[in-house]
Amino acid sequence: MGMPARHGAIHVATTTRVVGDKTYSTTLLRRTFRENGKVKHETLGNISHLPPHVIEMIRGSLRGEAYVPASGEFEIVRSLPHGHVAAVLGMLRNLGVDQMISSRPCRNRDLVEAMIVARIIAPSSKLATARGFNSRTECSSLGETLGLERADEDDLYEAMDWLVKRQNRIESKIARRHLRDGTLVLYDLSSSYYTGKNCPLAKFGKDRDGKKGFPQINYGLLCNAEGRPIAIEVFEGNTGDASTLPAQVLKVRKRFGISRIAWAGDRGMITAARIEQDLRPTEGLDWITALRAPAIQALADAGVVQPSLFDDRYMAEIVSPDYPGERLIACRNPLLAEERARKRQDLLASTEKLLAKVVDATRRAKRQLKGQDEIGIAVGKVLNRFKVGKHFKVSITENSLTYERDEEKISREASLDGIYIIRTSVPQSTLNSEAAVERYKDLAKVERAFRSLKTVDLKIRPIFLRLAKRVRAHVFLCMLAYYVEWHMRQALAPILFDDDQKETAREMRNSVVAPAERSPSAERKARTKRTEDGTPVHSFQTLLRSLGTVAKNRIRMKGDSQVEFDQLTVPDENQRHAFELLGIGISL
Asked: Alpha-carbon distance 93 to 490, whole Å?
């Protein structure tokens, strides 16, 4: 008569024993069962002789894992670039930008997240962006990751309308995180040309893009002292720089709740009128700006600014009754002086060459240029072309033109070459001369932001949107994208061409007035194209493209469309290093 059948869980058990200086392992196939209320174990066989990977397959099968024959049985049915999506979306979420947009998950939040990520990895129109999400036309894993495979451009427009209503709230959250009472803010204005139709914001104004014949929109960017974007506001294209400042002051004081703050803005932004009307009357507001050339010339004429100030150093504090309660810090950059002198001579020579052509036109036998009005129009075009007409003495008759350089004016202007004067209300006890000059120079961080927004990375232009609210939403999306990119650049700086040792570079400068220098580390990276440990150095965009080669592959068993699974490309050492620097995982 046979033994009764015993039912129970079958598993793989590995035991070890030490004999002397040797360790012996035994792997057994065992069954665990209950008999008469007691747990008992039964050995079914010894599988120690099997290869380790076979033992692991047996262990996995007993846990319920399914295995299929590998040889020639699988095919890759789709590969989507994924690594750059994981990097950007992971950083966005690590920063809490998704929570800033909306504390509760919703489809509009997913759409906004997707548009921010797409703006960084592949900036394009909203139609092209939507097609990149769609399951039939997708070009990355972004749409699938966020569940947006059915989204179209109308969904994106709806999400933009939803976002722009939340802009004030989102900017306030960013400000609470990065601004403190008594801090410094950087503010500047830029513009982008408009190629759409009938947008009320598009106006002809000061052309910053060199795109003649197109209207433009203006936008003012507010950053903290490190250059991190805090808020952005869109204005009509013909809005003057200085006229945008009052609204920003009100925003920081009322909406952000910061009563004591120092504003840094260029000489076209923080003008004498803005200081007297908006800044000086308001308690707790200080400013750091620079004087315009006529104001510097007036100080020179009054004997306040003299070349002897700079005999021993490149910087000196001066006092003038025209600026009560303020500090004036005069600086002279010799390299800038040389460059301005060279440029002036080039412009004067170019202007003389064109004036000589006008003279020849008044003397030619055929189609002679004559008449004071006609000659005057031709001369005016020449003098306005290079903006040095003030340095010429011109005499026009009915049929002749004579000209000569005004050497007195040229010499007077040249005496101030390389000199600029910082104007600030921040007391010496709070900010010494060097620090005040350096804070003014920090406006270059806003210029870098504009460069990234407009050309290098995010490509805010061309702008086709017709509705003002969508233009505002588009600009705000670009700012949020730059917020994410700014933090990514800080983390990835060791493997980018960006300078990751700026403090060292700052300490190397002989004077704060001297041009900024790059650290030895940055110079070495630029020269060798590699880091100290041999890792290839990237630009931000080439690094994203490299990460994008980590694909999300859909794998299917041949002949059975029901068996499909996703498998990521194994990242190489450099790609793993990038994710480590970002502090995020490649799987989302």
From this structure: 16
In this structure, the answer to whether residues 462 and 557 fall within a common structural domain is: no
Using one digit for the tens of pLDDT, what is the confidence trace for 526-574? Answer: 999 999 888 899 999 999 999 999 999 988 877 766 778 889 999 999 9
The one-letter code for the residue type at 585 is G
406 and 446 co-located in one domain? no
Exposure class string for 298-308: b at 16+ Cβ within 10 A, else e:
ebbeeebbeee
Residue 34 lies in a domain: yes
| CATH code of the domain containing 234 | 3.30.420
> For the chain, how many structural domains are there in total?
4
- C-beta separation of 515 from 335 below 8 A: yes
One domain, residues 339 and 437: no
Phi, psi of 330 (to 5 degrees): -85, 130
Give the relative orientation of helices 468-492 and 153-165 as an angle to the nearest 10 degrees.
90
What six digits make up the tokens of 73?
């049985």
CA dist 5 and 457 (Å) reads: 71
What pTM does this model have?
0.83
Q: Is residue 5 scored above 60 in pLDDT?
A: no
pLDDT digits (tens, 9 = 90+) for 122-161: 999 999 999 999 988 999 999 999 999 999 999 999 999 9
What is the rounded average pLDDT for all residues in the chain? 91
Do 249 and 204 fall into the same domain?
Answer: yes
Is the pLDDT score of 13 beyond 50? yes
- Domain shared by 400 and 438, yes or no: no
480 within domain boundaries: no
Q: Judge contact between 256 and 265, C-beta under 8 A.
A: no
User: Containing domain of residue 559, as a range?
Assistant: 487-582
DSSP 3-state of 585: coil
Give the chain's length: 588
